[in-house]
Amino acid sequence: VQLVESGGGLVQPGGSLRLSCAASGFTFSSYGMRWYRQAPGKDRELVAGITSAGGSTIYTDSVKGRFTISRDNAKNTVYLQMNSLKPEDTAVYYCAVSRYGMDYWGKGTLVTVSS
Question: pLDDT confidence of 25, banded at 50, 70, 90?
């Protein structure tokens, strides 16, 4: 299993970024996917999740209405569209999948929201 995140960077408050997570090594279309983030000095937290076919999503309260998770099963990729970014969204963002009782993580992509 390999998960590779991309799309992070420095953005001003109120700006937007789209993160991507390219997956390989498993049947992507059969598994739900999740995005997490970890801010400096804080625990990793679940940001958003999406079911295998993309029909259902969940979000943590702090990002509802601003972030959108989606997936393209033909491209084995899950996305996180982040709008109206706030300084408190600054974190390393990770995608993750659970298979047979094990969690797999990418190495993360850094998002910094600052003026």
Answer: very high
